[in-house]
Design a protein that fits this description.
With 313 residues, the chain is an all-alpha fold. The protein is 74% helix and 0% strand.
């Protein structure tokens, strides 16, 4: 496969996943902000979603302190934000068009129809009371794309590169969401109503609330939330599950290994190992922050390494 084809497929997967992740996080923030408003801490919720998307500094340079309306517009339709839903869908469609013959009809239509519908959208449909419905539409479109890829695409290298982008982006998102709300998991964090809402909001933002109830069958506890989102391979949005799939895909892609490709696989395996290297007791006793920082930084290096090994040749 040509490197530029692999690159387009990889970024198609990343951009579609990123758009869905922004919408999921935004829906959770809307719920949390409504609960925080009576306490006057609403701004912290909006700052948290901006940090989780890695765009907080860029936002402040352009608009200053976050307000609900401006932050929501930044995350949905603002084309100055390289991670907004609109920018991600535009980039995903551009990459899909470049490799259209490598995609199935269902995958192409999922991306292209989404882009067409977004261009027709009245911006007011992503504001105020309509914002949650817009986010639900974004999530539905990304689920449709992922479903089309899983159900209709040959398990060849084209599928592997698209899936590699999806999993790398998903691991980064889950780690960043945990990091953005780590105050609710800090040493001495009380099991009060405010922190309970934070744990619940975090699980909702990765569609893991029902999985938690199914696996643990007990009230929300911070150690269990961390265990599910960081360590448990059963949940498809846990960091461990994402890196396990990344490892499997890299193993197939790197059958003819050079030195760089071995290094790439080692880095992916090391990141997976960091997720399960410590007990939840250690993480809840102050170790969580450092582990998440390592994972987020390592995920960036892994993306660069994948680009060097497979995409920029």
């Amino acid at each position: 496969m040509l490197a530029r084809t692999a690159d387009s497929l990889f970024w198609l997967g990343r951009y579609m996943e990123r758009a869905g992740n922004v919408a999921r996080g935004l829906n959770a923030t809307l719920r949390m902000a409504s609960l925080a408003a009576p306490r006057g801490t609403e701004a912290e919720e909006w700052d948290g979603i901006l940090r989780a998307t890695g765009t907080a500094e860029h936002y402040r340079q352009l608009y200053g302190d976050p307000t609900p309306a401006q932050a929501a517009r930044w995350l949905t339709l603002d084309t100055l934000n390289p991670s907004s839903v609109a920018t991600c869908f535009e980039a995903a469609r551009r990459n899909a068009r470049a490799v259209r013959t490598a995609l199935t009809v269902d995958m192409w239509e999922a991306v292209n129809d989404t882009w067409i519908d977004l261009r027709k959208l009245d911006p007011s449909h992503a504001d105020g009371d309509r914002l949650m419905a817009f986010n639900d539409w974004v999530i539905a479109r990304t689920v449709l794309f992922n479903g089309a890829a899983m159900d209709t695409m040959l398990r060849d290298d084209a599928w592997r590169f698209a899936r590699l982008g999806t999993m790398l982006e998903r691991a980064d998102n889950t780690a960043r969401l945990l990091a953005a709300r780590q105050a609710a998991f800090a040493v001495g964090a009380e099991e009060n109503t405010e922190n309970h809402a934070q744990w619940q909001g975090l699980l909702r933002s990765v569609s893991a609330l029902r999985a938690y109830q199914h696996l643990f069958r007990e009230r929300l506890r911070p150690a269990r939330v961390v265990e599910l989102l960081l360590m448990r391979p059963e949940h498809p949005r846990s960091v461990t599950a994402c890196y396990e799939e990344v490892n499997d895909i890299l193993g197939v892609l790197a059958m003819h290994e050079g030195e760089d490709r071995v290094a790439c696989r080692r880095l992916a395996a090391a990141l997976r190992g960091r997720c399960v290297a410590h007990s939840t007791a250690y993480l809840m006793d102050g170790g969580l922050s450092a582990i998440l920082a390592e994972i987020i930084e390592g995920n960036g290096r892994l993306g660069v390494s994948i680009g060097k090994c497979f995409l920029n040749g």
